């Protein structure tokens, strides 16, 4: 279900959300429909979801802010060098940073594709997830 949280761009169509590019037999159809109907994710146009597109950092911030219903918070300026206050995603990005979903850094790279690492971190912080066992990945330092 969390993989479905990765796509957005346009408001959902109330309870009649239907994306022709997400057929009913798709393994993610019910999750995409659920998240769209609840305003968490959006399509890339009025009637297109684009399930195979990559998701950007800007989109992840927006989806997690919507999922956690943080949109009414007043954003504190994180003073990002690549996200001016006039940017369309500024508010969601600022709110995501002030809630610890994304780390406070100089650059956010709003149009960069979100990596698996960044998504794992964002979801862990957004939903306050705690592991119950240690998993070792050979490409991740034990100190990371």
What's the gist of this structure?
With 144 residues, the protein is mostly helical. Helices cover 28% and strands 0% of the residues.
Which helices and strands occur, and which strands form pairs?
Elements: H1 29-37, H2 57-67, H3 90-98, H4 116-126
Helix pairs in contact: 2-3
Features:
144 residues; mainly alpha; 4 helices; 0% strand; disordered N terminus
Describe this entry's structure for a reader.
Helices cover 28% and strands 0% of the residues. It has 2 domains: 1-53, no CATH class; 57-126, no CATH class. Residues 1-15 have low confidence and may be disordered. α2 (57-67) crosses α3 (90-98). The protein has helices spanning 29-37, 57-67, 90-98, 116-126. The chain has 4 helices and no strands. It is mostly helical and 144 residues long.
- For the termini, the CA-CA separation is 26 Å
Question: Which residue ranges are poorly predicted, with pLDDT under 50 across at least 5 consecutive positions?
Answer: 1-15
How helical, in percent, are the residues? 25-40%
Write down the domain tally.
2
Report Rg: 16 Å
Output mean pLDDT. Answer: 88
């Amino acid at each position: 279900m969390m993989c479905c949280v990765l796509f957005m761009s346009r408001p959902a169509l109330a309870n009649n959300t239907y994306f022709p590019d997400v057929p009913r037999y798709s393994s993610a159809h019910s999750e995409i429909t659920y998240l769209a109907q609840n305003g968490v994710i959006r399509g890339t146009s009025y009637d297109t979801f684009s399930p195979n597109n990559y998701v950007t950092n800007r989109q992840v911030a927006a989806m997690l802010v919507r999922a956690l219903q943080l949109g009414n918070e007043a954003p504190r300026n994180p003073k990002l060098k690549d996200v001016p206050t006039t940017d369309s995603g500024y508010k969601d990005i600022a709110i995501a940073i002030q809630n610890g979903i994304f780390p406070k850094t100089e650059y956010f790279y709003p149009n960069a594709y979100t990596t698996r690492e960044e998504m794992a971190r964002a979801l862990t912080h957004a939903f306050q997830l705690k592991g119950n066992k240690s998993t070792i990945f050979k490409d991740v330092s034990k100190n990371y």
